[in-house]
Design a protein that fits this description.
Elements: H1 3-11, E1 29-32, H2 37-54, E2 58-62, E3 71-77, H3 89-97, H4 103-113, E4 123-128, H5 134-147, E5 151-157, H6 160-171, H7 181-196, H8 204-207, E6 208-212, H9 217-226, E7 234-238, H10 252-258, E8 273-276, E9 283-288, E10 294-297, H11 299-317, H12 333-343, H13 350-365, H14 373-387, H15 391-395, E11 403-409, E12 417-419, E13 424-427, H16 431-439, E14 446-451, E15 457-463, H17 467-484
Parallel strand pairs: 2-4, 4-5, 6-7, 6-8
Antiparallel strand pairs: 1-3, 2-3, 8-9, 9-10, 11-15, 12-13, 14-15
Helix pairs in contact: 2-3, 2-5, 7-13, 7-14, 11-13, 11-14, 12-13, 16-17
Function: Catalyzes the conversion of GlcNAc-6-P into GlcNAc-1-P during the synthesis of uridine diphosphate/UDP-GlcNAc, a sugar nucleotide critical to multiple glycosylation pathways including protein N- and O-glycosylation.
Pathway: Nucleotide-sugar biosynthesis; UDP-N-acetyl-alpha-D-glucosamine biosynthesis; N-acetyl-alpha-D-glucosamine 1-phosphate from alpha-D-glucosamine 6-phosphate (route I): step 2/2
Cofactor: Mg(2+)
Length: about 500
């Protein structure tokens, strides 16, 4: 029996829902879990082809991140732990949406275009988050892998970053680390402990952190790595999945959108809290001040803190490392090798060696494949401890302008196309010009729009000199999106 006969026979057990069309985007495929069985089977097929195309192990992660628990999704991981090449996203969409009778032709078209040798061995790593639907949907992926003659390794319950990490470790033949959750836990925790050994006089109170696990996989995996951290961190875990549903009034997306702490978390004024998202690839920090006002520290504040810390260390070793012009927040591999040599150089001065060793530990705490809530949390906690910095002092590094985030429902989110790191809209025609005109009406203002990766909505961000002005700008831009990008339902109403 040919592989195509196996695929056709097996695909009948994973029939496509009539009329269902889904695009593969930056978040992969996401929808109600009941709609995804055929897509999972077909992504198993695609993962085999991608593995043969790259001659490497490919990852398939079953998750819907911050979506409600009844949803699920899937995304494919490329050899170095990065997201699947955008050149293959079209193949994913084509394969997922092909009618049953056209499935084999769609497969053959990809094979022909990419000159794929089906005789090559294909290996696929598989993982899932804590959604109940993940068990059945993972089985569908494995069925697709097997139908096309590939081999799969099921990691079971893992965070998305852990699977990305394992894929990279496998394809670097262990140079990046051991391709297992235990290997991930040991590498990150050892580096964190080494880094925090430079935090002198850090009290137990200063080590304390409240963590919102979003009732998801991040809570489960934080418990596992916590056992390796010894007394270097004091973590109180909330929303661990024992009482409420995944992402139900908790998680990073909820906190950022609603600008308030998640349900169930208990913190005193000035204490640090953080929230993971559903698959633990994103994190936000926050605290309340003495007047109980809520303060959010999201991606920009996190990137600033880490960049300042790494820059200070790099400055201390700059005379010894001649490739620092290539170094940013991720350490270039050539610089990494020289930092290692400096850390072991008996003739180097103590300050440079200490800085080099701290850089080594920082690199090992960072998951270099993808954003990682657990990894980011460990690095942030180490930096705050080393610098003796409170979360209020961190927040005061720079002051955010008042801002507002809202979303507008549209008939098809693909009508929005952006450029310049999603800061400018390329289409539909006239939208960016309208935004530019609206921004000019407000002081210290800017506004961006971007399509959601998971649903037919457009997300709008606006900031300005005052909260009233930011709210007004957000509403004005939402009207422009509604009118130019095919808004559905009632026209957006003012926020006040």
């Amino acid at each position: 029996m040919s592989p195509f006969e196996d695929v056709y026979k097996e695909s009948k057990f994973h029939p496509k829902l009539e009329g269902l069309l889904l695009p593969y985007g930056t978040a992969g495929f996401r929808s109600n879990a009941n709609h995804l069985d055929h897509i999972m089977f077909r992504m198993g097929l695609l993962a085999v082809l991608r593995s043969q195309n790259t001659k490497a192990t490919i990852g398939v992660m079953v998750t819907a991140s911050h979506n409600p628990e009844e949803d699920n999704g899937v995304k494919i991981i490329d050899p170095m732990g990065e997201m699947m090449s955008t050149s293959w996203e079209g193949y994913a969409t084509q394969l997922a949406n092909a009618e049953q009778e056209d499935l084999i032709d769609a497969l053959k078209e990809i094979i022909e275009k990419e000159a794929i040798d089906l005789s090559l061995e294909a290996k696929v790593f598989l993982g899932k988050d804590t959604r109940k639907s993940g068990v059945k949907l993972s089985e569908a992926v494995i069925s697709g892998v097997s139908a096309l003659g590939g081999h799969s390794k099921d990691f079971g319950l893992v965070t998305t970053p852990q699977l990305h990490y394992a894929v990279r470790c496998q394809n670097t033949k262990g140079k990046y680390g051991e391709p297992s959750v235990e290997g991930y836990n040991k590498k990150l925790s050892a580096a964190f402990i080494q880094l925090t050994n430079n935090a002198f006089n850090c009290t137990d109170d200063q080590k304390h952190l409240s963590v919102d696990g979003a009732n998801g996989i991040g809570a489960l995996k934080l418990r596992e790595i916590e056992c390796h951290l010894k007394k270097s961190a004091h973590i109180t875990l909330f929303n661990d999945g024992s009482k409420r549903k995944l992402n139900d009034q908790c998680g990073a997306d909820f906190v950022k959108v609603h600008q308030k702490a998640p349900i169930g978390i208990e913190m005193n004024p000035g204490e640090r809290g953080c929230s993971f998202d559903g698959d633990a690839d994103r994190i936000v920090y926050y605290y309340t001040d003495s007047q109980r006002r809520f303060h959010l520290l999201d991606g920009d504040k996190i990137a600033t803190l880490i960049s300042i810390f790494l820059k200070e260390l790099l400055t201390q070793v700059s005379s010894q490392i001649h490739v620092l012009n290539k170094v940013h927040t991720c350490i270039h591999s050539e610089a990494e090798d020289q930092i290692h040599q400096l850390a072991e150089d008996p003739s180097a001065n103590d300050e440079a060696k200490r800085a080099a060793r701290m850089l080594q530990s920082s690199v090992n705490v960072i998951n270099q494949t993808i954003g990682d809530a657990i990894s980011d949390m460990l690095l942030i906690e180490a930096i705050l401890a080393i610098k003796g910095m409170t979360i209020q002092q961190w927040h005061a590094i720079y002051t955010d302008l008042p801002n507002r985030q809202i979303k507008v429902k549209v008939a098809d989110r693909r009508v929005i196309d952006t450029t310049d790191a999603e800061r400018r809209a390329v289409s539909p025609a006239g939208l960016q010009e309208a935004i530019d005109s609206l921004v000019k009406r407000h002081k210290k203002a800017r506004s961006f729009v971007r399509p959601s990766g998971t649903e037919d909505v457009v997300r709008i961000y606006a900031e300005a000199e005052t909260q009233e002005s930011a709210d007004a700008l957000a509403h004005e831009v939402s009207l422009a999106v509604y009118r130019l990008a095919g808004g559905v339902g009632d026209e957006p109403k003012p926020l006040h």
